[in-house]
Amino acid sequence: MLPSAPDEAAVAALASELHLPPVICELLLRRGYDTPESAKRYLRPRLEQLHDPALMLGMDKAVERLARAIREHERIVVHGDYDVDGMCSTTVLLRTIRRLGGDALPFIPRRIEDGYDLTLAGVNAAIEANAKVLVTCDCGTNALAPVEVACKAGIDVIISDHHLPSGPLPSCLAVLNPKREGCDYPDKDLAAVGIAFKLSLALTRAMGGEEDDVFRMLDLVALATIADVAPLRGENRVLARAGLKVMKESPNQGIRALIRASGLEGKPLNAGRIGFILAPRLNAVGRLGHALRGVELLMSEDEHEANAIARELEELNRHRQDVDRKTLARARELIEALDLDATHGIVLAEDGWHPGVIGIVASRLIEEHGRPVLLIALDGDEGKGSGRSISAFDLHAALAECRDLLVRFGGHRAAAGVTVTRDKIPELARRFNEIALAQLTVDDLVAELRVDLELPISGATLELEALLRHFEPFGPSNPTPVIVSRGVRLAAPPRVMGDGHLKLRLQTDTGELEAIGWGMASLASELDVSTPFDIAYRLERDDWNGVPRLQAKLAAVHH
Fold this sequence. Notes:
559 residues; 5-stranded parallel β-sheet
């Protein structure tokens, strides 16, 4: 679907003001950047565009208490979460406090034994460590009872988190969360690492520390912001763009080791490579091992130690992929038994599933079936569930309507976690589907292809691809531009490669353009050299032996 074309006069005005080609200005206007100022801010994200951390409700109290703890050598426990955002947030805050002379210890819950969020396991660890301050990263907004226990034990609690409050907030020293009621902080989209970064910056300023030390950790901020699938607009765009630059020459031994171990050394680092190659390796340790190992990697100052941990993560990730494949195969079998016409919300439960991988499998099932999915790993009388959703369905709100059936739940509109007793699962499946049937039409279940530009195939050039790079990093709320070219002709018969993929050579005015269609092999018999057809695609550049090569990644073919 191509949105209505912007007014030609508006395109011309923006083009003359910005000295950019009309095609780029058309894309800017389609994305809502309709003034030279907003377009410049978008194309040139700068650190000066970041908001003052002091604007966040509770920041002054949090900074004052942490500064006092550092000065008086009181022990601080930094309690993270077991995903990339939790590990990176913990690392940012831990490094900051220690650099300012503070005594800080990390605590990361173990997914299976301790469960999600700030629980009594974390509180007890803080009590045993004789901590006077407990700071959470990426958790705690909904942990009312554990916070109360910590406070009664004489520990001052500071929550730093970005999850939606599902009820009243914990009663403690400060809750730093832009999504909480009464917080006027202008950007509500920050990942937890963005909040840890803001707290670190405010604390460093208050104590007269070296601000550059905090900015040198932007590689961690970019890694977690992209890994947590945070919207890449506003501050997140600034942080991700700046962090990707830092990552090229990362001062962090752990990140460097991770890049080496995953085969990315010397390759351009973009959001796709972070999200699909680097992040899963860190996440694997939180899914199948103990995420504290991830923090040890990111805190490491020793190249040999970092390399050894990175290799461990590489091995864990391979094991995780194997578990993924088996779980996905079983989930597909269970879905085959469902009547999908009457099922708009899928709930599946199975003994023996690993709670650490069901979220990944749920994401894959959404790609295949286009409807919200909740997978539950059963163990004894209880199950741990992980849900993923489509843009038209608010998963957090749906689970809130089922809260009487759940031991607990938390998360976002698009992803959530639940704990549920075995006996309540049939009713949960029924009610979850009932809510989805009431809210989602058949049209909502079909992934709509959003198209940005229509161009003749000869307009797809290396020059255009270079200009489109200014729109990076791509991700949620800032997707890779999709181009439509009509009346395209083949320069040679289609080829099928590997596991069902289509490879085309397209005729252009100046030669040929290679196009790849993942999983589109069935189209090979329907396309021929004599008949023109229409394509939707994303332009990508691949450097082959140092020679830049353009490729069209097909999103759709219409013949």
